[in-house]
Amino acid sequence: MKKADVVVIGGSAAGIPAALSCRRNYPEKSVLLARREKQALIPCGIPYMFGTLKKPEEDLIPDSVLEQNGIELVIAEVTEIDRKQKTLSVTDGEPIGYDKLVLATGSLPATPPIPGIEKKNVFTIKKDIAYLADMLNVINNTRNLVIIGGGFIGVEFADECKKNRDISVAIVEMLPHCLQLTLDEEFCIEAEDILTKKGINLLANKRVESILGNEQVTGIRLADGQEIKADAVIIGIGAVPNVELAKKSGFRLATSTGAILVDRSMRTRTDKDVFACGDCAVKASFFSGEPSNIMLASIASAEARTAGANLFSVHQRYIGEIGVFSTVVGGRTFACAGLTEKKAKDEGYNVAIGKVSVPDRHPGSMPGMTLMKMKLVFSKDNGVILGGEISGGPSAGELINAVSACILHRMTATDISVFQMGTHPAATTSPIMYPLVNAAELAVMAIR
Amino acid sequence: MKKADVVVIGGSAAGIPAALSCRRNYPEKSVLLARREKQALIPCGIPYMFGTLKKPEEDLIPDSVLEQNGIELVIAEVTEIDRKQKTLSVTDGEPIGYDKLVLATGSLPATPPIPGIEKKNVFTIKKDIAYLADMLNVINNTRNLVIIGGGFIGVEFADECKKNRDISVAIVEMLPHCLQLTLDEEFCIEAEDILTKKGINLLANKRVESILGNEQVTGIRLADGQEIKADAVIIGIGAVPNVELAKKSGFRLATSTGAILVDRSMRTRTDKDVFACGDCAVKASFFSGEPSNIMLASIASAEARTAGANLFSVHQRYIGEIGVFSTVVGGRTFACAGLTEKKAKDEGYNVAIGKVSVPDRHPGSMPGMTLMKMKLVFSKDNGVILGGEISGGPSAGELINAVSACILHRMTATDISVFQMGTHPAATTSPIMYPLVNAAELAVMAIR
Asked: Do A395 and B394 touch (CB under 8 A)?
């Protein structure tokens, strides 16, 4: 029987950082990572295999990151966990013994109960390179593509599939706007305008009733009777925790999301020697402590690092999901940290808003200048920041992380209005116009 | 006599935000800004008037920012402050009465006592558009340019003057490396390599003994006897507080730097109705509270916002200078927040370092990918972050601001190792490789 002090099941955005953090925190312990897939994909990069990247293989996570850190890799599916004997059964190969176990089994694409979903050329987003390579071949020969779901996965796929292809692309979204679960309406509308200008057909407020065709998809029918031609359909309506193994092994699951129940150290509530992190583990909001269903690679990696650090001595308490996310639509970055205005209001906050629109270089005539919009959301009652949204150039992807740090530390509008930032003509807004401090200062006025 | 509730003297990176913050915090008060210059320059943009920008006028701060916010602009030099009568005398025009006064008179270029410094075509960096336009004309006809001072101003000028010109450029720096006061040696060397590859001649560890020529400069002589041909010389060795008016008006000045003494609310120690901010005001380190001589537009604006908010009711305490700065050398961004390793050691800290080098996109084959280097400096005794340095693409300019937020909140390496960041293939490093958390995690190991 193989044996390692620590076994991590899963090799993606949770499994790898869990293994790495364990190595760094407990260098004397042996770490083994077991994953089902021959090759691990960068999950966030999947949409970019369909346009920007030259070939699907460019989106692989190199195994060298494991080798270089002395982490043993076993490619096998774990089929059973014997928690008493602390051994794992695997599909092919000898069993594996562990002292501490990390479940990082991720998620599976959600599949809506739409009649016809089983037809050929109807795809979900599986983290499987062979499946995605096949899907790419189909898309390359598709004239009419329908994407079901206008969340960021759907939008990224639409954007990428439209690139360098003579293809008609439609997005069908049940809610009034694309990206509505992650951005406030004004940012959604900005993103939708970009998509529309690229010739993508947006069908919001629409429900898919059925997928048409015989063996192979030929179109979709909406609840309002409208039919849309389609040689291929991509379903991007979210994901569900992959917990089959955990369920079978007697781990308690959350009634809300079905995810593995863990405490704030990322230890399962079922077995003190087993931790869980990433999409398969239960999430709680940083703000309310309530269950949250955000799934992001960045959250997975933060949870995984917490798990890895806590394996042999619990000393890190995870503070809950802030939810920090970026996407790119037609070359423009959209980012959000924490609560949108709508979410904050839905949660009962009395909010104060600060909003600015500024050039992201100074002077504005510096090359590469993009207009940056920022919105900050504060609690009117205590002035504490609840969230921020940005649209702008690529640097919005890092600026949102400064916002995340402000949220983490429960800074007030007054605190942020004198935030000490660095600025440079070729890299940022001017110090006078700096969006974070100006939006905060405007909110200070609104709070009074 | 003119009168305003608040008068701000100075119209640059301190004066404008002081006036704006006052308007926002005290909307009922009238605000007047008096500045000497007909047109205000964006100070950080000055080097870019010499290469990237099409004409000097592109680097102006539009007065509309004042008009739109109901701030009255008076173009006049204030020659005297009558603190008893609370009135200002100005060069031309009627006196101005105030209730609260903000001194934002900035700095003047430091001039070293080098014989020959008065010769024609020897320039300092004055924030004066007519002067700079003349200087640009001279540089456009210069074949041999010598820059005295290899700090970020000198380096930016070298980089810009070399652009699209048939010109030989040399930098003379007294210290062993360019940028040594703001970056650790390994980052200085990286920047120097870029400058050298662009054909800029670096003369480090060299002192200028005299400037040669008759009426007009023809070259410089170094202390080691070497002579270098020069049709023009630019002196960029720093700046000194512009405190002539304050001195004349009886304000107490710091013995260390000559700057106007203020408390942590930015109120002068001399007069409770007068505040000072920006380059003309005394600075204290965030870390030690000791006097600091950092002058940055971003610091000026943070101090100015503090002053503006405190004018009629002191409720904001400035926490001292973290010192966050970015520069761009040959298209590569270099940024620093807080203490470098060297500075931290010089101040007596026992330090732990975390260092990573990662692609700033994921996968690394995403277009626009730049290798990003990050170094974090922690106190080994309590794990608290002291500083961070980055070199990379333009997004380093915002990532350093996330580092600043971590410093502001005295986060430990352990805290930062589970920082919640957003990531996206086209805008950031991958969550697994994210430099901030990985550098912190490596430092956790070094701290143990």
From this structure: yes
| Range in A337-341, A348-352, B89-93, B248-252 the model is least confident about | B89-93
Same-domain status, B302 and B337: no
Whether residue B290 is found in the same domain as residue B227:
no
Q: Pairing relation of β-strands A71-75 and A31-35?
A: parallel
The answer to whether B46 and B125 have CB atoms below 8 angstroms apart is: yes
Instruction: Return the CATH number at A348.
Output: 3.50.50.60
Is pLDDT of A193 > 90?
yes
d(CA B47, CA B53): 9
Q: Which residues of A touch B340 (CB under 8 A)?
A: none
Whole-number Å distance between alpha carbons of B200 and A18: 46
pLDDT in tens, B335-382: 999 999 999 999 999 999 999 999 999 999 999 999 999 999 999 999
- Mean pLDDT for B399-428 is 97
Bridge partner residues of A121 (DSSP): none
Structure-token pair, residue B104:
């934002």
Contact A427 B333 (CB under 8 A): yes
- Tell me the residue range of the domain where A378 lies: 331-447
Supply A15's token pair.
Answer: 């499994």
- Pairwise CB contact (< 8 Å): B423 & A44: yes
Domain membership flag for residue B249: yes
Do B401 and A395 count as a contact with CB atoms less than 8 A apart? no
Q: Look at residues B182, B213, B237 and tell me which one is the last residue of a structural domain.
A: B237
Q: Are residues B299 and B193 in the same domain?
A: no
Q: Do A375 and A407 fall into the same domain?
A: yes
The percentage of residues in chain A with a pLDDT greater than 70, rounded to a whole number, is 100
Q: How many CB atoms lie within 10 A of CB A112?
A: 14
Q: Does some domain include residue A212?
A: yes
Tell me how far CA of residue A119 lies from CA of A215, A401, B60, in angstroms.
6, 42, 62
Q: Indicate whether B250 and B195 sit together in one domain.
A: no
Which residues numbered 288-347 in B keep a CB inside 8 Å of some CB on A? 296-302, 305-306, 309, 315-316, 318, 321-322, 324-328, 333, 335-337
Average pLDDT of chain B, as a whole number = 96
Residue B18 lies in a domain: yes
Distance CA(A306)–CA(B344), nearest Å, equals 29
Domain boundary among B276, B310, B344: B310
How far is A127 from A130, CA to CA, in rounded Å?
9
pLDDT digits (tens, 9 = 90+) for B189-220: 999 999 999 999 999 999 999 999 999 999 99
Q: Is A271 on the interface with B (CB under 8 A)?
A: no
Instruction: Establish if B114 belongs to a structural domain.
Output: no
- Nearest CA-CA distance, residue A303 and chain B, Å: 7
Give one DSSP letter per residue of A350-397, joined into a string: -EEEEEEEEESSSSTTSTT--EEEEEEEEETTT-BEEEEEEEESTTHH
Please check the confidence at residue B397 and state whether its pLDDT lies above 90: yes
pLDDT score at B92: 84
Task: Indicate if B209 and B306 belong to the same structural domain.
Answer: no
Classify residue A289 as exposed, middle or buried by CB count within 10 Å of its CB (0-12, 13-18, 19+): exposed
B426 and B364 in a single domain? The answer is yes
- Mean confidence (pLDDT) of chain A: 96
Residues B55, B69, single domain; the answer is yes
In a 10 Å sphere around its CB, with 0-12 CB exposed, 13-18 middle and 19+ buried, how is residue B99 labelled?
middle
- The tally of domains found in chain B comes to 3
Dig out the tokens for B290 from the structure.
Answer: 């000791």
pLDDT in tens, A40-72: 999 999 999 999 999 999 999 999 999 999 999
